Inverse folding.
């Protein structure tokens, strides 16, 4: 395909994202059937990477840039961004939930988002695809086009009193941040129905999107963790805020729009935010 024939219509980008994410999910699924070992560590000794994280990202990068050579690409395992000229940037987590993948806990995902550059040097997420590898469930969204699970529209839960909300969270790979997160969880736990740590930021946000939890809050997440799934959650009726957390790192707070403010206030009072 020549670059002249490449369009940036969300529907076309979504079709490509889905096709490539399915291929990557298949690669990850097959790799899990064999032996999985740690290939390296990153930000700390518990922040691991496997050969499959790298192979999944290489496949996604190769397929996307072969179809759209003028786009930019940011993948977790690639380190730096590849800069293109089309105004479209792909943001990819080749396995979100690597620790689950390593231990064979069937809860990890391939996440692919497409962002369109704006005139102010920022960008708007216009396409998001998250595939739950073990179950094969596909979450997808386009900006303004709604969110789906396996092709069917999804929506968030109705607002519930705080004491009846099921909250999802996650823990950073940094021991310092974990200390702060543990204290915040201890303060929030008596005030809500319960708290779960499932191990994939992308699937946590998709769970809020489909009404499978009432809220999500986590400090220390990176753009590839939430780029695709935050769009899915927003399009399903959640409000998703990206701000600074108690230790100065990025924090994501997500909840159904109705009732978001009450959850945010609780997250601040619990110490998730500075
Ligand atoms: C991690 C997962 C986890 C979250 C961490 C992320 P990775 O991503 O999303 O749930 O708590 O903050 O880094 O390392 O498995 O791609
Ligand atoms: Ca991740
Ligand atoms: Ca990852």
């Amino acid at each position: 395909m020549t670059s002249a024939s490449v369009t940036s219509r969300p529907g076309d980008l979504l079709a490509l994202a889905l096709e490539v994410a399915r291929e990557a999910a298949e690669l990850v699924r097959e790799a899990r059937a064999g032996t999985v070992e740690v290939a390296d560590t990153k930000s700390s000794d518990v922040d691991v990477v496997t050969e499959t994280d790298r192979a999944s990202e290489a496949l996604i990068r190769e397929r996307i840039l072969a179809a759209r050579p003028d786009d930019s690409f940011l993948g977790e395992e690639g380190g730096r961004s590849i800069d293109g000229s089309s105004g479209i940037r792909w943001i990819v987590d080749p396995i979100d939930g690597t620790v689950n993948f390593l231990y064979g806990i069937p809860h990890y995902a391939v996440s692919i988002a497409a962002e369109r550059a704006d005139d102010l040097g920022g960008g708007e997420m216009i396409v998001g695809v998250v595939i739950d590898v073990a179950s094969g469930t596909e979450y997808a969204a386009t900006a303004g086009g709604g969110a789906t699970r396996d092709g069917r529209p999804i929506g968030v839960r109705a607002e519930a009193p705080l004491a009846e909300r099921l909250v999802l969270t996650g823990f950073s790979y940094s021991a310092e941040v974990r200390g702060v997160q543990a204290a915040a969880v201890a303060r929030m736990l008596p005030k809500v129905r319960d708290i779960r740590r499932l191990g994939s930021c992308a699937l946590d946000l998709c769970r809020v999107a489909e009404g499978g939890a009432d809220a999500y809050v986590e400090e220390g997440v990176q753009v590839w963790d939430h780029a695709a799934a935050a769009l899915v959650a927003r399009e399903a009726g959640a409000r998703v805020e990206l701000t600074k957390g108690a230790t100065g790192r990025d924090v994501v707070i997500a909840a159904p729009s109705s009732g978001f403010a009450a959850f945010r206030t609780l997250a601040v009072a619990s110490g998730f935010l500075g």
Q: What stands out?
A: The radius of gyration is 18 Å. The mean pLDDT is 93.
